[in-house]
Amino acid sequence: MIGKVMRSREALLVLVILAVGLLFALLAPQFLRLPHLFGIGRSAVILGFLALGMLMVLITGGIDVSVSATAVAAMYIATVVLLELQYEGPFVVAVLLACAVGGLFGLVNAVLVTQLRLPSLIVTLGTLTLFRGGLLAFVGTERIRVLPAQMSEFSTSQAFTIAGGTRPAQLHVSVVLLVAVALLVGWALRSTWWGRSMYAVGDNEEAATRLGVAVTRVRVSAFVLAGVLAGMAGILSGALNRAADPFTIVGLEMDALAAVVLGGAAVTGGRGTVLGTMLGVLLITMVGSSLVLVGVPTAWRQLFVGLFLLLGVGVPALRQRRQERARGVVEAAA
Amino acid sequence: MTSETPDRAGTSPTGDVPAVPAVAVHGITKTYGTVHALLDVDLRLRRGTVHGLVGENGSGKSTLTKVIAGVVSPDSGHVEYNGERVEHVDPRAALRHGVRVIYQDLAVFPNMTVAENLVFEGNRPLLRTIGGRGRRRRAIEALDTLGLQLDPEARLGDLSTAERQLVAIARTVSSEGRIVLMDEPTASLTHDEIDQLLETVRGLSSQGLSFLFISHKLREVVSVADDVTVIRDGEVVSSGASHEYDQSRITHLMTGGVVDDVSRQRAPEPAGEPVLQASGLSLSSSFRDIDLSLHPGRVVGLAGLVGSGRTEIGLALVGLVQAERGEIRYHGKPVDNLLGLSKVQYVPDDRLTEGLLLDWSIADNVILNNLDAAVGRGGTLSTDRAVSMAESWRERLRVKAPDVSAPVFSLSGGNQQRVLLARALAPDPDVIVLNNPTVGVDVGSRSEIHQLVRRVADDGTAILLISDEPAELLSLCDELVFIHDGRAVHRCSTEGMTEDDVLQRISNEGAAA
Questions:
Q1: Which residues of A touch B316 (CB under 8 A)?
Q2: Residue A56: its chain B contacts at CB < 8 A?
Q3: Number of domains in chain B
Q4: What CATH code is assigned to A2-20+33-312?
């Protein structure tokens, strides 16, 4: 039993995170200070929500690279609408609005993928550009600095504060929110028929169909939820940065994909866990936001994300290659 | 096991009132292209009984199963479950009526564990929770029912074919099915496992479950079934209580009197140097210490269960699988790998996914392994040469098609198989490995393909035949090698052997070894 746990991807990631953390701590003592650790949590929120959505689509055997465009469009559209209405009420309405817009964009992906039977990579590459282009063309290109009051205030809503040292350590509410949503998604994937059907569809679509799974409905739900979670990521990003910037979050879909495959999800579908994904998010965010502490330019973050992505798909591919060789599969002639 | 369950309430215990059948199909016709897969088929599966459905490969058994399960929709005719007529059957409708299917190609989830596979049901309300404990216990009970010693937490993809098949069967038992369709459930099982399965089927049917049991192992059918339906070329040729049938009558009905038990006229003793010789060939995941000699003009058969390693041995000989140890000699010279050598040909059993390029024309498929012969003066492919080459093969193998520019997908199974054989024969090979060369072809094509194989052997080609069917092995081979669990456990001449001998040996090797 213990051997099995140790061989799991999650255990491996925990070890890697501890090792990398130790390395940072040795090179830069301030890494272990609470303000920095809580800061990592805050930085992980946007990526965390994007990755959760990506995970669901990956489990069903698809991929959604449009999540970043969905996130920014949902955030910007929701903000513009609320400003037009001169809305001053609670932030939660902005969140719901952004989630609804995101879900709508997810539905566009879902319809294209399931009704036209197009490969999801191509569809979402298309919508990635379409959503971004549409946003810039029809809604606006301007960075909005004056947000609805409660949205700005959210950026300083801390779950709790630990006083001490030169500055107090503050854990932002959105971190708690991410953990709560992750727990909910994890439970749903494990313990509801919807969750099991998601894995079934990604693992063996033909078998799922024969066993009566509503395959289309399941795949649509994955894309729509990925859109909703992207909308969540978007509006939180706007609130945390206290600005609605249509040029933010660009490229974060690759970080999300890297986090999910690092966490053990298979790009071929049927495999992946919320815990693994969250550990992947943690590792990427930790490296990204701590590089500066050890004197490495932040620009290197992308380099690491690329490496993580290739590691995430490379390790299982190598293992499979080894298994194939054991079965005597012949290498293609060079 | 009490026999009084609510489901039996509708059946009079004395049997004098005709009960509503669990499944009744009426006038089902299904056509693929120009071929009738099913033609006006009627079938009644009585509740609480086992109904044997027998027929040769390609006779339409699997299509009929899929119609009842709602996976294939028929062109005409309708299906009734428990007397209720259902116009448009889809998998969910069939499931709702308690239909469970065990497919030949396993409908399982390799990334899930055994327990997860056992408890998975696709037709549940998506927003409900699974309710862990009770289901897990039922999963383990289902394994116990079939006497299986499997770790419920093992990943299914890591198990053997036979074990996966058993899990698929256990799932049906655990999922509250009332009507169970089993499509060749014993193809990869050993004798003991088969006995265990048949006993379970009988036990469950006495509890009110109804089984449609599809097999071409007639002994199993005769021993387990209450009723028998024989199907040939998509039509029901006979149906009745099983005591009216014995194996020889069923055989006669299945083949329509076209008996294909002519064995080879000339069975030369192995003489001279073998064309292809393997010694001590091993691949730890599949087979061990295999010695085989293929001589010109001789047909050697590999007999064994699905998953016994026989296919991998064939693949290793032609170089499509790389063995870890052992030696292969081709015309006496040691070779590392024969892949790409046109004189050594392999004919796969799955012509649709491993064999033919379905969208390409007959001509383009036939020349594929012999491109040199189709090269014209300019050093490029010559359409004229390709067409004339393909034409001559079309005539020789009597492929029924208007002309060789027709795409392969438009042909029937038997004609597709001939195109596949033509491609393998075009380079005039000296070794051919045939893997189930008559899967899914009609009876007529089958006997023509058999004649062709004999003729090719008579012309001096060395042939290795891998087959599921004892009749085919006996009719074509000079010598049989029985494979069990990756080892060659027995070798013998086919002379004087009966199908029963072969079946016994295949199924019993597990116990004997």
A1: 328
A2: none
A3: 3
A4: 1.10.3470
